[in-house]
Structures are given as structure tokens and as C-alpha cells.
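Our preliminary data section would be incomplete without showing what the modeling component actually yields. Below, a chain of 302 amino acids is followed by its predicted structure, encoded as C-alpha cells that our downstream tools consume directly.
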Amino acid sequence: MQTIKRQLQQAGVSHVLTDEPLVKYTTWRVGGSADLFVYPKSKRELQQTMTVLHREGIPWHAIGRGSNLLVRDNGIRGAVIKVGEGLDHLTIEGTRVTAGGGYSFVRLAGKTAKAGLSGLEFASGIPGNVGGAVFMNAGAHGSDVSRTLVSAEVILEDGSFKTLSAADLNFRYRTTALQEHVHGVVAEATFALKKGNPAQIMADVRAFKQRRNRTQPLNHPCAGSVFRNPPGDHAGRLIEAAGLKGYRVGDAEVSTLHANFIVNNGKATAADILTLIGDVQKTVLETYGIVLHPEVRVVGEE
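Predicted structure:
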């Protein structure tokens, strides 16, 4: 990877590391190291990163704030691209809002609320960045990204730019074309919001934040909701009804506050969490005949 590192640096990508531990970049605080860790600080650096990796045949994964992500203990072969600072711009023009892929989704909810724009209040409870939110069609409180997104500028794996409309992204529940046949990184996204009462919008944002703080185990390392909600039900309800609150594998535990969260009580490994996920799926299937599908992305070497 030293050769690839030199090529990236020669292309103007300044922040490139080898054998970088990923524990500090994930909200679960688990996982091994990345062979190559790239932190592009601009669209140009991101484009150059994609171009070099594609030319050299290096596999890659993009991460944002590390939520909704489980990195296996053996780490990631190839490159990890961190989307954050430098790709965190924000422009508000009337009711159109364009945010960089590295912009905090929670912060975006606050900024648009203060501007008297409605449509992203639900984002106040989603810890991630804009790129990740678009990638997975993030949602909460009966809404999701698909309701307001106009388009996303994506840098494809060969380094080319492509603007995808909401139709191109093929939004479905926690799924988009970016998880399937469109391989690239979201550089920025544009949303169409509506003018509203700033005081009411801010009140809604505060209420969502308070509910999140009250109902989610944010005092422990976790990654957000672990399982997708099955049609007509809630994963958390099923897990709790199956008696699994507090169930542990090593230091990984089904939260006693919200059963669709798995927390790291200090020294959990990715293997612990994966075993716990499997145990929960098995128990819920045996008890209710319902298959729970993980919402979190699992990446890295087996």
C-alpha cells in the first residue's frame, strides 16, 4: 500500500495513512485496521482518490461518522475513504438546500429549522452525515430522505462526476441504488424544503432530540438501530417481547433502554456483536416466525 499512498499524495491527496485502526472512526468503537485510510479534504481530492484506486484495482469502502457501521475485527483489506471535513459545505437558497456529503445530518436539521424551512426535522435524531443518509435513505418519525431529496452529486468509482435524481436513486425502505448497481461516493446533496413557522419547526426538532435522548442508549457506544423494522411491526418491540433486553455476548448487550440497539459495554469485539445479532435473529424467528434483517452495514475481512 505504500506505492498507492505515494500515488495518492502525488495526485494531491494530503491525508493518507496505512494500517490505520478503525476503532476511533466508528460509533461502536470496534473493528480492525484499514490497509489504507484516505481522508480527502475537497471534491478534487475525493475525485483523485477514486481515480487512483480504480486505476490500481484497489477495493474501497466509504465511511462518514461511523454510525450504522460494523467493521469486523480483522479490519478492511483495501482502502477506507473518510468523508467529512472539507466536504461539509452548506448553501441555502430560498427553499433549496445543498449540503456536502460530509455535513452532519443532525446539524443540517438544526440549520434548516433556524432558517424556517421544514422537511428535515426528522434528521435531528439521526447521527451520521448527509452522504450516509442519502446512501441508506435514512429516516425516522415517519419520514426519510426520499421525501425531500432533489438530486445527489456522486463521484463514481472511476473518478467521474454524475448527478443522480431522486428517481435515479430508486429510493426504498433504507435502500437506494447506491447500495446496488451505482458504485460511488456522495459528494453533495440538494433538498427541496418548504417554508414554515420557525418557532414550530424548532420546537419539533427539539422534541425529536429530547425523545432520542430519552429513548436511546447514547451514553454507550452503539451504531443506531441494528435491524430494519419488518412490515407492520417494529424490530425493537419484537426483540423486547422475546425477552432479549439485557442479553449479552461478551461485552456486547441488547440495550435495556431500547431493544433495537446493541451497546458496547467496554471491551466488546465485532465478533461479539455479530454473534449477538445472530442470536437475536434466531430467537425472533423461532418465537414469531419473523426474519429480522440488519440495518447496519457489516464490512471487513471474515
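The helical segments are 2-10, 43-56, 105-114, 130-136, 166-169, 198-215, 235-241, 270-288. The CA atoms of residues 166 and 180 lie 15 Å apart. Preliminary results of this kind motivate Aim 1 of the renewal.
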